[in-house]
From TrEMBL:
Phylogenetic lineage: Bacteria, Pseudomonadati, Pseudomonadota, Gammaproteobacteria, Chromatiales
Assembly and interaction partners: The complex comprises the extracytoplasmic solute receptor protein and the two transmembrane proteins.
Keyword annotations of the record: Cell inner membrane, Cell membrane, Membrane, Transmembrane, Transmembrane helix, Transport
Protein name, entry field: TRAP transporter small permease protein
Coiled-coil residue spans: none
Length: 193
């Protein structure tokens, strides 16, 4: 079962790392636009569209990565005081009632949203160049799919924690500071991604 969880984690991490490169492109586009606008006094007509498309792609496609590496912000002041089985039970209920229905709805509605965009050849109305948007609207159901996969991994982790009383190991390249605070003397090792 652990190999299955690591497989799903690796998919989410891989997708997140691929889309993280859009930050580099986004930075270059914004720097170029600032240079052209304020130094050359000749702003571009495409930088605004490019920047919000890249940011949107990064934001939506990084969700599964953030879930796999536990990088989401959570207010767990009281939650961390619960025993593992109580944490797992609470997480399981929240995943089943809120998370999974929401990401399935995102995938379902996003498919029709993207399909309509492809059908009409939707273009951006915010600039004279009007770059195509349908490619990027296709990321909506795709993000829902990757979030669903990672949600399955998280639900499986909750069930395993309910049964065993301890959280299963997790693949991740971000170590939670809470681990350092709770067990500063223990050497916590994780498998390499």
């Amino acid at each position: 079962m652990q190999r299955f969880l690591f497989f799903l984690d690796h998919i989410s991490i891989w997708v997140g790392k691929i889309f993280a490169w859009s930050v580099v492109i986004l930075t270059a586009v914004v720097a170029y636009e600032v240079f052209m606008r304020y130094v050359m006094r000749n702003p571009t007509g495409w930088a605004y569209d490019t920047s919000y498309i890249l940011y949107g792609a990064l934001f939506i496609m990084a969700g599964a990565y953030a879930l796999a590496t536990q990088a989401h912000v959570r207010a767990d002041v009281i939650y961390r005081l619960f025993p593992v089985r109580a944490q797992a039970g609470l997480d399981l209920v929240l995943y089943l009632i809120f998370f999974m229905p929401a990401v399935l709805a995102l995938m379902y509605a996003g498919y029709f949203f993207a399909e309509a965009s492809w059908r009409i050849g939707e273009r951006s109305p915010y600039s004279p160049h009007g770059p195509p948007l349908y490619h990027f609207k296709s990321l909506i159901p795709l993000a829902g799919f990757f979030l669903t996969l990672q949600g399955i991994a998280e639900i499986t982790r909750c069930i395993m924690a309910l049964i065993s009383g301890k959280w299963p190991m997790r693949v991740g390249d971000v170590k939670d500071i809470g681990e350092e605070l709770v067990a500063p003397d223990q050497n916590i090792t994780r498998p390499a991604p």
